[in-house]
């Protein structure tokens, strides 16, 4: 298996609301106009939005579940100021700030926001490794 993640799919409760949040609110580029799914072309990995019930059905699992899903998504930026600006942009787009930006135990600077379905995004500046 190649050491690569090609696509991350988020099961969302309202596809149009999520499309507006990610495309219009955060400015992520949409790839094409596909019925019933939204593809966002990112650098290195793509993100897709798909109705939660249908995604669960496709995987043949129950759609119920709440709370912490056991993972977060991360967006790294080149500076502390960019962390603050990105969190503010997400909040203006309708995100809920879960953890305001601050210095963290590993020596970087980060904060978290939740998208309309509660998926957690960390926005971080890592002064030791360029992940931007």
What's the gist of this structure?
The chain is α/β, with parallel strands linked by helices.
Can you offer a commentary on this structure?
- The chain is an alpha/beta fold.
- Helix content is 24%, strand content 30%.
- It has three helices and seven strands, in the order βαββαβαβββ.
- The protein has helices at 15-25, 52-59, 80-92, and strands at 7-12, 38-40, 46-51, 73-76, 96-103, 109-114, 120-125.
- The longest helix is centred in the middle third of the chain and has 13 residues, at 80-92.
- It is globular and about 40 Å long.
Q: Can you list the strand order of the major beta sheet?
A: 4-7-6-5
The counted number of beta strands is 7
Termini separation (Å)? 25 Å
Compressed to H and E, one letter per element, the order equals: EHEEHEHEEE
Shape annotation: globular
Query: Could you name the ranges where pLDDT drops below 50 across 5 or more consecutive residues?
Result: none
The Rg value, from CA coordinates, equals: 15 Å
- Average per-residue pLDDT, rounded, comes to 93
Number of helices: 3
Largest sheet, described in full? 4 strands, mixed
Portion in helices: 10-25%
Structural class: alpha/beta
Q: How much β-strand is present in the residues?
A: 25-35%
């Amino acid at each position: 298996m190649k050491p690569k993640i090609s696509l991350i799919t988020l099961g969302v409760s309202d596809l149009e609301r999520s499309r507006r949040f990610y495309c219009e609110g955060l400015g992520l580029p949409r790839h094409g106009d596909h019925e019933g799914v939204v593809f966002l072309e990112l650098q290195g990995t793509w993100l897709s939005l798909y109705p939660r019930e249908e995604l669960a059905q496709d995987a043949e699992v129950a759609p119920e579940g709440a709370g912490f899903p056991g993972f977060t998504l991360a967006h790294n930026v080149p500076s502390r100021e960019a962390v603050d600006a990105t969190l503010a942009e997400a909040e203006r787009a309708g995100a809920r700030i879960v953890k305001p930006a601050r210095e963290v135990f590993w020596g970087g600077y980060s904060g978290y926001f939740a998208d309309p379905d509660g998926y957690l995004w960390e926005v971080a500046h890592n002064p030791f490794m360029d992940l931007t």
